[in-house]
Amino acid sequence: MFCHMKSCLLILATLITSQSLAQDVLTLPQVVANKDRVGVHLLDQGYSGEFSKRFDEDGRELGPDPKPFEYTHASFPSGKHPNVTADDLPINEIVVGLEEPASTGGFAYRAPTVAVAKIPAFDELKKLKNISDYEKIFGKFRGFTDAWGMNGEWHSSKGWMGFTLLDDGKIRVVSVFLHTENKGDGWKISTRRIREGVFQPTRKPPVLEKAEPRDARESPR
User: Fold this and answer.
1) I need a surface site. Which of 11, 89, 90, 201 has the fewest CB within 10 A?
2) Count of beta carbons in the 10 Å neighbourhood of residue 201
3) What is the model's pLDDT at position 83?
4) Mean pLDDT of the region 66-95
5) pTM of the model
6) 34: how many CB neighbours lie within 10 A of its CB?
């Protein structure tokens, strides 16, 4: 990648033991340019911020926004995702590292946010009409979802988080959540929820206990 993405505001948590954490510390340009690393690596500095632009197409919130948080680690896949074809690009992502209770013997990593070559402007993202338009930007949806409905009408969702490295060393982070529906003529977008924010480099090594607010760590999203 630049690369594609896993999931969005239905944020996934992946438990990884401390023994599986790679030893080398990476800069963000190294994360973006990576072609052969695997596993989880600590970033040389944190990237902290929150979403400052918000768009809810149906006029209602689909859940609380994450409070200011800090990216602390880079994550690279050790194998191919089953939903990804051979010509798809690898996943280079940054994640939020959280300290877990000592009984787990490891860390939790949240908010997987994948490096993307170019993300359209916020107002342009609001105008995209098809699911495939977002897939062209962020790649195939790799998260978990389900479908519900009756009488031939079904509903589901897809989501992504992506980032681009800006010239001044900051990162632009974009979150897209799509509520989708199928009335017998294929899956289409029902409503969009889009978030955007610029995250600042902290200029110091990440501190796990400051990656997210304490109340966010104590209650699952």
Assistant:
1) 89
2) 19
3) 55
4) 73
5) 0.80
6) 19
Token pair 């079904």: residue: 154
> Encoding tokens for residue 212?
């997210």
**Of 129, 140, 134, 136, which Cα lies nearest the Cα of 177?**
134
pLDDT tens for 7-37 read: 322 223 333 333 345 568 999 999 999 878 8
Residue with tokens 């200011």: 68
Long-range contacts of residues 53-59, Cβ cutoff 8 Å, at least 24 apart: 53/122, 53/194, 53/195, 53/196, 53/197, 54/194, 54/195, 55/122, 55/126, 55/192, 55/193, 55/194, 55/195, 56/191, 56/193, 57/126, 57/191, 57/192, 57/193, 58/179, 58/191
Q: How confident is the model at residue 108 (pLDDT cuts 50, 70, 90)?
A: confident
